[in-house]
Structure formats: structure tokens, C-alpha cells
Amino acid sequence: MKFVSRTLTALACATGLAFALPAMAVEKINIGVVTGPTFVHTVAAQKFKEEVDKALPGKYDVVVHHSAALGSETQVLQQLQLGTVQMSVCTTGPIEAFVPEIKALELPFLFSSYEATDKVLDGPIGLDLLKRFDKSGLVGMHFLDNGFRNVTNSKRPVQGPDDLKGMKIRTMESPTHLAIWRAIGANPTPMAWPITTQLQQGVLDGQENPISVISAGKLNEAGQKYLSLTRHVYSALVFVGSKAFMDKLPAADRKVFMDAAATASIAGRKFVRNNEASQLAALKAAGMQVVENPDLAAFRAKTEPVYASLSGDTKKIVEEIRKTVK
């Protein structure tokens, strides 16, 4: 009986000690994206969460804040620098203010296919661009797709640049995109996403985005009657991390995060490419008038002067891209 008593006493003490010890805190990982749940940004962020939960169960609480709940892409990037937000899936346009060389990817008619973009982004050029994020307090983790950008508007079918003359076209908050649309002859209006209300109210005549965004954003229901398949700029997305946060991670956990971003990014590319044809068909069926073969030669001629402003590393990167994709 004494043995049983001592055993029970020991168990009671051990149990009491266990309750006295604080539970291991679960670290919260905030991912800020500006798009809604059906957009590739959010789909990829959710895939990242699944991968981290699977590899490190119970260690991190990954929360995806969609629909600009944490602010515009520029504001989220600023929060990444401060370390108050840990991750984002962000369009390259706003990144230009933080990593100027990224505008090499944003130049008009630089890429002709997804095969060409993969060759660049998954090769030495893409790796070099991702490394350049460090100097701005960011971590470039992996590239994924937004798709090729096309122009929509509420006024008329667009066959060539002259059809856009004077139109108020929403662009991203990017000097390169503003230069492109000024060269075309439109009236570019930089504005953070979402822009549905501005389109509905006629504050904007049109906008430019990939098919995936036009579809997920239901822009045809916001008065955008006309779509022209200009494919004028390839729009990459980047899985971006906060350097302040990533530098504190144990090496093994950092590898898990980088691998999860890579897996999520490849899934994001497939999501965009596999759905593009059906999304375009659905837009047509919903009544959107589509110009499938606009005068691309005229658009190229109008936007070629944008290349004349390039200098330094950005100019060298563009030259390397052209050699790689020729």
C-alpha cells in the first residue's frame, strides 16, 4: 500500500507540474493579399498554409487575410518590411517601388508565352531577381502567375491604340505601367485593388488585367462590356516574406516555408493556366464582347519608347531576358 501511495503521490506531482508549465505558444503567420477568395493570390496563400500545417503541425497558425483586409499591396509590403505582417502574394507592379529591378518583368510585349516566362523565372535571371529583395527588408520566395494582361472598357471595342485615346484606364501603382499607358495614348489612373465601385460609377472607363482577374472579379458585371486580348504585359506574382521574420526562423523551419512557397507557387501557375480558356469562354457567354486579334504591331510600336528609359541593372536584365527567350 505504501508503494501504491508513493506512486499516486508521484503521479499527482507530475500532473500538477505539467499543468503548471505554460503551453508552447503557437506563432501566428499573417499572409496579406488584396484579392478575394477565388483569385490565384488567395488560392496560392491557402495552399501555402496547407503545406506548412502538414510539415509543422501545431507549430504555426497561418492566417490568410484576403480582400485587402490588411491594406493595399503597397501597404502590405511596408508592413512586411516592419515585420508586422509575415507574408504576401503580391503583384510585381507595386514591388517596383521596393525592388526597382523587378520592372524588367513588366515591360510591354517582352514575353510571348508561359514557356518563355518559366524559362526566365525558374532560371538564373529569376533567382537573381529574388535575391534583390533582401536589400529592401523583404524575401523573394518564389514566382507564380497572374497571367498576361488584357484591356477592358465600357466604351467601345479596342482594335488598336487609337481606340483607347483619352480613356481613363486604371493601372497598378507602378511607374512602368503608367509609362506604358501614356505611350499608348490613354489616361492612366493608378489605383489600388479592388476597383469594382469605381468601374460601376464610371470614375474609370476601363482597366487592364489577366483573364483570371477579369473573371474572378466579375468585371463584366461592373460595366466592362469590351475585352481586347492585347496580352501587352506578363504579370507575375511573387510570394514575398518579411526578412525580419524569416531571419528569426530556425533553419529547418525556414526551409519548410521556402518549400511551401515553391509548392504553392507552382500550384498557382497551374490554377491560372488550366482555367484561362474556360474563364474566357464564360465571359463571352455572359455577353462580354471580345476582340481576339487586336493590332498588336501597332501596340508594340506605341510602347517601344518605354524601353528607351531603361538604364543600369534593369537594362542589363532586360537584355538577358531577350537573349533567353529569343
Question: What can you tell me about this protein's structure?
Answer:
The longest helix is centred in the last third of the chain and has 35 residues, at 251-285. Helix 2 (40-55) links the parallel strand 1 and strand 2 (60-65). The chain has one domain (2-325): Bacterial extracellular solute-binding protein, family 7 (D-Maltodextrin-Binding Protein, domain 2), CATH 3.40.190.170. The termini are far apart. It is 45% helix and 20% strand. The protein is of the alpha/beta class. Strands 1, 2, 3, 4, 5, 6, 7, 8 and 9 form a nine-stranded mixed β-sheet that branches. Helix 2 runs antiparallel to helix 11. Keywords: Signal. It holds the Pfam family DctP. It comes from Rhodoferax lithotrophicus.
Summarize the structure.
With 326 residues, the chain is α/β, with parallel strands linked by helices. It contains 13 helices and nine strands. This is Solute-binding protein.
